[in-house]
Design a protein that fits this description.
Blueprint: E1 3-6, H1 8-21, H2 26-42, H3 49-61, E2 71-76, E3 79-83, H4 89-107, E4 109-117, H5 124-131, E5 136-141, E6 147-148, E7 155-157, E8 162-166, E9 175-179, H6 186-195, E10 204-205, E11 211-212, H7 215-220, E12 222-223, H8 229-246, E13 266-273, H9 282-295, E14 315-318, H10 319-329
Parallel strand pairs: 3-4
Antiparallel strand pairs: 1-14, 2-3, 4-13, 5-8, 5-13, 6-7, 8-9, 10-11, 10-12
Helix pairs in contact: 1-2, 1-10, 3-10
Length: 340
Amino acid sequence: MREIELSEREARDLALRACLGAGANPASARSLVDATVSAARFGPSAVGFPHLVDYLNSFREGRINCDPAPVATRPFPAHLACDADRGIAQLGFDLAFRDFVDAARTFGIALFTQKNSYTTGELGYYVRRLALEGLSGLAATNANAMVVAKAGGPAVYSTNPIAFGFPLGANAPPLIVDQSSSATAYVNIAAAAAEGRQIPEGWAVDNKGADTRDAEKALLGALLPFGGRKGANVALLVEMLSAGLSGGSWSLDTPSFRTGETSPAVGLTVIAMMPGSKGSDHIARAHDQIQRLEKLGVHVPGVSGRSPGSTEQPLRMSRAVFDAIDRFASNEHQSSGGVT
């Protein structure tokens, strides 16, 4: 499949024009572009520009409020709670971010919860932001039900990802663990279907509950949890952390993020933690431990394979994804307002 290469500046410009062309207000557009480029640069490629197309369609079709007014409250000194007003999750997080970081530095730990948003995109983005501020982070979110607790059962959970980040020093990329509770992420199934590829056995079942390697049948069926019952338990844990703590919709009550006109209105919970008291050597110890693990052949997510010049490399996307985004970008002149 032919790929398009863009500089980061070109990619940002394209994505920004596309968001505005889809009807997003400037603040939403900026927040989403930042998250998209970060996902394309550091996360799984499927949750970068390919997933941006889902956002663009959802702006246009009404699943995302194009002009939201997120409201943040502080029910406890170290707890910031946000209602995203059916907008993107990244915007509410951005608006509360500085207060969230300050609270974590003041109290040693802080909690951010958000309800009533579109799906969160790359979950690692939220803990990566914290790690770059010298904070450890844990994040959890949910979406519409697409994962069965056991083969043959009904879909009761979303892929319910969880992400963890830990800073490793100013000149080192942070540790970022970001993984779903399902055997794979939904976007990987969707990408395989779009490209006509089979999926590995154990990823999904068809609409009759039978194992399938056909991605199209998997889209009509459901995903399987990783590790059987243990993965389903992790999905339940994430459900309680995200929807339970935030007041967001349970996965069983959440409409699809790809069809219809209704916001998924899901939950997001992020916990920020100081990695030790002021003057401690906890970050240095963690850095040394990661180096020791890598010498033993352990792949460390967020760290292994990263080169110093990785942020200067061009960004890539398939021709199909580029064309889909470009179609929205060509409608930018129809959007009201500009970006300053």
